[in-house]
Structure formats: structure tokens, C-alpha cells
Amino acid sequence: MLKRNEFLNFRMANAQDANEPEDHTPPTASLTLSNGKKYDEISTSYQFDREVSDSTGTITVKALFNNADGVLLPGMFARVTMEGQPLKDAILVPQRAVQQVLDQSFVIVVGSDNKSVARVVTLGDQVGSYYIVKSGLDKDDVVVVEGLSNLKEGQDLDVTMTTADELGLSLTANDASSTSSVSLTAK
0.90 cut: is pTM over it? Predict the structure, then answer.
């Protein structure tokens, strides 16, 4: 299942890339079988449902695999992973660092004087525990992730650097709402 915006981005990227066929690399789909092993074949062929689900806001996407070796059988369960084009020099911020007021998103960064500074950001897609930041941040900005509830702009900060692992952040979707087991149908 893809969220509406993910589907639109997928389709629009493929339409743009079709104008430049030598640079076009379609997103790939791979399967992890129920026994935890990766299926050898990679797919770049997809079928989409014709409507978005009103209740979930998602659209069903089917990755097509040739299944030449006959390993896949109807009713089997597997996990599908789709990988698109990497974004060069993308800036990611943890979702929990983003605050939203009305129609604006912002983050708090550590200013040069160790005081908090609010930055309005334009967000892109969600990637695991992160948002892609389209504008509003530089690669050298230090984003405040913890202690945001009582923090005001211009406040002195006692900065402790931490890692994504220590914060439990991930680049993959691993919560129940965004991971799916799929039932395989024979081709």
C-alpha cells in the first residue's frame, strides 16, 4: 500500500524520467519470504488499483515477479520492499523534531550562540522515522530533538549530541501502520 502522496510522487517521477530514457531507472521491488530469506528475483513492473481507499488514504500496488523457478505459490506471504532513486545530499530530520502550527512546519536548531532558533521548513516525503527537508535547513544545522515541549526561541541550550540509534530512529518503515505482509498470487 502506498499513501496518496507517495503514489503521486512515484507516478510523476516515472513520467518525468520517461522523457530521459537513458537516465531512467525504475524503482525496484524485492521480496523477503516468510522464512526470512530473500527471493532472488527483483521486479520493476507494477500494477496499481484504480482508486484510493477512503478509509486508509492508500492505494494498493502490486509488484509483478516472473516466478520462473516456481518458488512462489498462491496464498504465500512475503514482505515487499520498494526502492526508488536515491536523493543526493538529502537532509533528513526526525519526525519528532518537527512541530506544526497551522499550515507551517518548523524545527528548533542550535544557533551559533548556543541559543534556540526556530526555522520554518518545507517537508517532503516521510522515510522511516524521518522527513525529507526540501528547504529551510543546511547540512551543518544541529536540530533539537528532545525537550521541545518547554523550549522557546532564544532560550539558552545545554547541548548533548546523540546518534540516531540512541534515539531509536530508523530509515525503514517498521511500525504496524506502514509495513505489510502480502498474499502472493500466481502470474
Answer: no
Helix/strand/coil for 62: strand
Report residue 3 as a C-alpha cell.
499513501
Alpha carbons within 13 angstroms on the beta-carbon side of residue 163 total: 2
Asked if residues 153 and 116 have their Cβ atoms less than 8 Å apart, the reply is yes
Q: Is the dihedral of CA 37, 41, 42, 46 positive or negative?
A: negative
Please tell me the distance from the alpha carbon of residue 96 to that of residue 50, in angstroms, as a whole number. 34
Residue 87 reports pLDDT greater than 50: yes
Location of C-alpha cell 545530499? 89
Check whether 73 has a pLDDT greater than 80.
yes
Three-point CA angle 83, 86, 90, nearest 5°: 130
Given a cut of 80, is residue 96 above it in pLDDT?
Answer: yes
Residue 65 has a CB neighbour count (10 Å cut-off) of 21
- Nearest one of 58, 133, 66, 60 to 93, comparing CA atoms: 133
* Cα separation, 42 vs 68, whole angstroms: 12
